[in-house]
Structure formats: structure tokens, C-alpha cells
Amino acid sequence: MAGRASRLATVPVRPHTAFPQGLIASAAGVHARAPSFLPRTYSRVSGGPARGFAASAGAGNGGDDKDGKEEEDDMEGDEDYEDDDGAEDYDMFGEGEDFSKDDRSHWLDRELDGEPAQGAIHYPPVRARVGRQWPFWSAPACIEGKSLERLTSDDYLGMWKILFFYPKDFTFVCPSEIIAFNDRAAEFRELGCELIAASCDTEEVHLAWCRTPRSKGGLGKMDIPILADVTKSISAEYGVLDEAAGFPLRGLFLVDPHDIIQHITVNAAPVGRSVDEALRTLQAFQFNAEHGEVCPANWKPGEATMVADPNESLEYFEAHWSDNDNNAGSTSSRMEVVNSEKGFAASVIEGSKGKGKKPVLVKYEAPWCGKCRQIQPFVDEMAEKYAHGLTFVAFDPAAAGVQGAMVDGHPGAGKGSMKEHPMLADHGLPTFRIFVDGEPVDEVVGYKKRQLESMIQAHIPGQ
Description:
Structural class: alpha/beta
Helix content: 10-25%
């Protein structure tokens, strides 16, 4: 090893080549040089910190010739290191082996006496897993775009937190994401959750980015910290570091007050994340932690949950699907399907009650109703167009066993106004009815597209 370190210490390199910190270590007077391609192509080798390319000056002559005089540097140009085909060759180990640029990947992966190639970058292994404690971290950070301090994961003990990584400062999708999360930080804090952003840029670059106006691609005023993972070790341990590119992917980690990771998402660089979905996921996990019940697909606060039990969960399933689910031919996935009185009460009556609840439009239908199927494509359009203002529900009174419901097109026994019999639609199918604060307030009966859209528009706040 001593002789090898001596030979490595005199490897030529182009002037002004920038190397990662810790990659080259040399004593005074030693020509500590490495090929210029190294910083762009270093590979990951699991283990401890990166070892210096020329780590020792103790072996060899320390850069002096036998007479004790400093060697004359004759490496001013590349002409001494080009062969006939113009490729730069390096006698890396003084053993007659030429390593051209085309051989760089082979050089980086080769092993010497069973050890990793000199100069390889060592990143820690991935440790972040759902259901496990989030890995400890400590890093400098830009705090609220004003100051530079060091933060650690211990600063967030006993609280919900979301740690989200992004690729680079002063880029394109990244500021849109950070601003979107930052500007809704108060909503997360109301739920006892702190937001933490992170990239591999330095804290000084973060600060400069915060001082850049948003109209110029900057972040502007910030209410959340931005970590500076300059060693890339945090990104590596959390499994989001793209080692070939040298920056983290868009990873998001939701961690509970016991420091257990409950949720992980990772996006490739070109596509940003949804703040609404991050908030919804937080609310769902908090509901589960408080009540023990589990949250089905697309669950939002106030909607039905289920008990994680083979028998007790049937209450939820029976409320949303029937044994003879012929509605699949007429009802789309854009509408919630309700096929029980309990489901109607939960999704329609309670689902439209209270501050912040959207009005609910109920489509009363039946498997034998041809008009119900014919108008469904139009209803799908309405459900997509007005999803921001209304909740759309499909309901088959006969399948729910509602007494007095129409059966095979024949009127049932239930007569009277919609307020007296909110689950019945004996004036014809399809019937479309609007519920506000748990009460039916308007309806359209039959295949009437224009009237249906007008009724929808009339009950959307601010429309």
C-alpha cells in the first residue's frame, strides 16, 4: 500500500479541476493529482466517508527528487499525455496500464487487493423505511429566509413533521413546490405539523435564493426552514439521492410524533408534488392515530371510515356497494355510490352539513332505467367540471331497501314532497336532487341536460 500511495501521489491532472471535499488529501509539496474525469463520474461504494485519492505523502519521496530538490512541473499541457488517436492516457499505478477517458468507469469500479478503487465516493446506505424511525440528521439550514442556523431531527421531537427534498436551488419546478408548501404552512401547523425542505445546496445559496424575488424565480419570504445537505449523506440515507446526477429526487416523508415514518412518496425531477394530497394524507393518518379506524381511497375529513375487521368493515362496504351492483353500467368512478340508508345518511345528509361542506348532488337511479344510463356521460362531464363546488353521489333507493321505492318502473307507496321523503324519487327516474346543510333544496326530474346544469350552477357558491 505504501508504494501504491506514492505512485498515486504523482498522477497528473488538468489545472483548475474542482474535486469534492475530502476526495483529495495531500501534504505540502506533494503532487496530489487525479484524472480530470473523476468528479463527474465517481461511483457509490457503500461504507464510511470518502477516502482521499492521494491520501498519503509518507510513502515515496514527498514530491522531491533524490537530491532533495523539488521536481520541476512539466505538466503544463496535455501534449505529453496524448497518443496518436488523441485520447488522454494515464499510467495510473505505474504498472504499464493505460486508462483513457473511455476506461473511466472500469477504473472507478476496479478493486485493488479486494478494496474499493481509490477515489470512489462513499455514501451511507438507505435507512428510511415506512414503519421505522426516521434517521437522525443534523445540518445547517436557512431559517425563514433570514438567518443561518444548525438544525437536527431532535428539534422536532413529539410533533408531526413533513421532510421534503427537492433537486436544486434556482431551478424551475422546485420554487413552485417550495412556495406552494410554504404558503400553506399555517394549515399544517394548525394540525400540529411542521414542514422542512431540503436539498444539497449550501445554506448560503438557500439564503440568496430567499432574497431573490419570486418574479425572478426566487423564493421570497419563507416561513419554513431549508436544510443544506451539502455532504449528501441525509439524501442518501433517506433513499432519494440520484447519485449519477448528484442531487436528490422529490422525496416526501410524513413522520408521526413518535418519529415513525408513516408515508413516503418520491417523484422524478420533472413533476412537482400536490400540497393538497400531502395535507389530506396527514389528516388521514391523524384520524387513524386518534380513532383507530382506517381511511378508504380518496378519504377526506368528514367522510365515512371503516373498522379494520372482517365483519365490522361490512358496514362500510354495504353502504357503498350492493350485492347486485348493476349500477356499474350507469355510474362512473367520478361519483360516490351509496346503496344503503346508513350510507345515504352519512354521505348525503351529514356530508352536506356544517361549515365548509359542499352541497351534495344525488342522482337517483335504477338498473332498469334506460334514461339513467343515457344521461350518465353528461353527468360525468358535470362531475368533472363542477367537482370544486359539489359532491356527486349515485343512489338506488330500491337496492338500499327503502320502503316505497320504485321497483321495475312502477311507483312505490311513498308520496309527498322531497323534504318528506328525501330518499325516494317516485316522480320519475333519473331524478337529480341538491342537498344543502342536510336538506333537499332543489331537483330536476328526467333527461334534462340544460335544466340539470342550470340547477348545478345555481347552488355552487360564488358561481
